[in-house]
Amino acid sequence: MTSFLVDAQLPPALTRWVASEGHDCKHVADLNLETASDNAIWDYAARANLVIVTKDEDFAQRKALAKGGPAIVWIRWPNTRRRELLTRFAAAFPDLLIALQRGETLVEVV
Predict the structure, then answer these.
(1) How far apart are the first and last CA of the chain?
(2) Which segments of the chain does DSSP mark as H helices, in order?
């Protein structure tokens, strides 16, 4: 089971969907981190061994340069309605999990 932390620009509904698939998943709002800095979110995820799910390119850039820290799932879609986002994420989820299980630490979802 992989544990995830969903970033602020993604809806809490995504957190609920991932949890419904049997994975531990928290939204930054659940942890009072919705207004926290990227550094604070990064550090929390690293300490708690959580994969950050984000649309924020800053996390992807940091991961590309960092030797450690949390794994990042970088969603590279334009803004969409929640239903479309959940449908697209559900389609991408099996491959995303395989990539994480292979040890990839920066997974782009395009």
Answers:
(1) 23
(2) 12-20, 38-48, 57-65, 82-101
Q: What are the pLDDT tens digits along the chain (110 aa)?
A: 899 999 999 999 999 999 999 999 999 999 999 999 999 999 999 999 999 999 999 999 999 998 899 999 999 999 999 999 999 999 999 999 999 999 999 999 99
- Alpha-carbon span 12 to 65, nearest angstrom: 29
CA 31 – CA 35 distance, rounded (Å): 10
Q: What is the pTM of this model?
A: 0.97
**φ and ψ at 67, to 5 degrees?**
-85, -30
| Closest by Cα among 25, 74, 20 to 48 | 25
